Structures are given as C-alpha cells and as structure tokens.
Amino acid sequence: AHKDRMLDDVLTRLPADRHVFVDDRAAILSRIKAHLGSVAVTVHVRQGHFGDDPLETGELPPDRVIGSIGELTALAPTL
Predict the structure, then answer these.
(1) Left if phi > 0, otherwise alpha if psi is -120 to 50, otherwise beta: which for 66?
(2) Which listed residue, 22, 38, 39, 48, has the most CB atoms within 10 A of its CB?
(3) 35 with 7: CB under 8 angstroms?
(4) Do 63 and 36 meet the contact criterion of CB atoms below 8 Å apart?
(5) Are 21 and 29 in contact (CB under 8 A)?
C-alpha cells in the first residue's frame, strides 16, 4: 500500500501532536502535507531512486530537504 493512503491508520495507531515523514519521493510528501497540514513535518531526502525528481505544478514543497539519510540524525533535534 502507498504510504499516503495509510495515513489515517498511522494516526490512529500512533497518536502524536506532530508526525515526521521522511521519503525520497517529493510527490508522496506533498500528498501527506496536503492531507495532514501542520501536523506533518515532511523531509525530502535527495538520495535514492526518486531523490532528484522535481516537484510537479501544484505540489507542496517539503518542510526540509536533506542530501542523504545520514543527515537526518543532525536534523532530528530541530523537528
């Protein structure tokens, strides 16, 4: 199943004031942000198969962009 189609299940199972979503696909992060709004913090990793795919017209930009998954450790305290 696609991650963005499982959001309601995730929110039910893991309630929180804020959720951080990390992916190399900007389109998925855009759909998550559109569905959840400020509850979601989106992090686009520009590593991986889809990392360099551009945003399509109308897609929401991610909250943060990192070059590799290894950078997530340093970014985590600010999320």
Answers:
(1) beta
(2) 22
(3) yes
(4) no
(5) yes
In DSSP terms, 40 is beta-bridged to 19
The burial of 42, by beta-carbon neighbours within 10 Å (0-12 exposed, 13-18 middle, 19 or more buried), is given as buried
Which helix H or strand E contains 24, and what residues bound it?
A: none
pLDDT, one tens digit per residue, over 7-55 is 889 899 999 999 999 999 999 999 999 999 999 999 999 998 888 888 8
pTM here is: 0.89
Whether residue 1 is predicted with pLDDT greater than 70 in this model: the reply is: no
Q: List the one residue out of 22, 23, 31, 25 whose CA is nearest residue 4.
A: 31
